[in-house]
Design goal:
Length: 391
Amino acid sequence: MNNDYELETHAVRTGQNRTLENEHSEAMFLTSSYVFNSAAQAAARFSGDEPGNIYSRFSNPTVANFEQRLAAMEGGQRCIATASGMAAIFSMVIGLLKTGEHVVASQSIFGTTVVMFDQILRKLGIETTFVPLTDHAAWQDAIQDNTRLLFLETPSNPVTELVDIRALATLAHDHQCLLAVDNCLATPVLQRPFELGADLVIHSATKYLDGQGRCIGGAVIGDETLLNDIFAILRSSGPSMSPFNAWVFLKGLETLSIRMKAHCENALALASWLEQQPQVERVYYPGLPSHPQYELAQQQQLGSGGMLAFDVKGGKDSAWQVIDHCHIFSITANLGDTKSTITHPATTTHGRVPLEQRLQAGIGDGLVRISVGLEAINDLKADLQRGFESL
């Protein structure tokens, strides 16, 4: 595929490897294994002397199509697809770090990611220091002689904090560290981490890449050298993406650009409206001039995304009341869907994060997170208004 194509063309055409049937849509290869022409060919495939598929735990044509397409859209050399976004993060860390090495991570990351770094990886001898996402000096002070990786989300989930990726990439490389950016909320349509110096990009394909809340999946994108080590983990431990899910994600990528633009338009309109509601203390959305990193968002992103959060006056009881009065918004922890979703992060997505750590990340009891879908904006406003009027 021509690397000079723009993102929208890659989203529709890259990774389209037709079979002898010359099908127009991508084929779905639902097979666990592959037949060899001879024992000699089987041996050559397993040894790596001959290219070709071996076993769908680590080689499947449909999954490969998805990997090629997403790598092209992100501007990376290679992509490895995984069973979930968490599997992508875990495979990356286990593939690149060893016992006794150290990670610096933003404290403003997804709650399950905090648990992985703080509890699971700690058992394996990989220590993590959490720092405020926006405090560049804190990142610098946290780096140790054994630090190997800097990990972050930007925008963060759920309070949409941003960090200067280029500045943090410079800091990481000055200390011979890698910078991994979770680009789940922005997607390659709105943010280009590799162009800003990142070494690795992570995705939960479950979110905007799918776009309709159908399948679970993840991905790691980077250069060949780094991904070879991660692929070794995938091949031997098996956190693999299923061919069916890969096919669904291929279809999602085709409309990603159009959907992200619509999500951004709806989210900005809803965030602006929420700022005017007397029951709301604060709105978190990078597209608002009131956002602390508004200027950075204008420079670093091509749109402010489809997720926002807001603090309701009255704490948890008021937040729950607003949520429970919604008829259109789905009460679910997923995001990136064409259907608008609403959740209470302190008791759902970040419920396992220790209270002090959760509050440091800006997640109070009155915080409500919304993933703004593609419904009519006036209907979404009216749905929330019903909850506000109940307070």
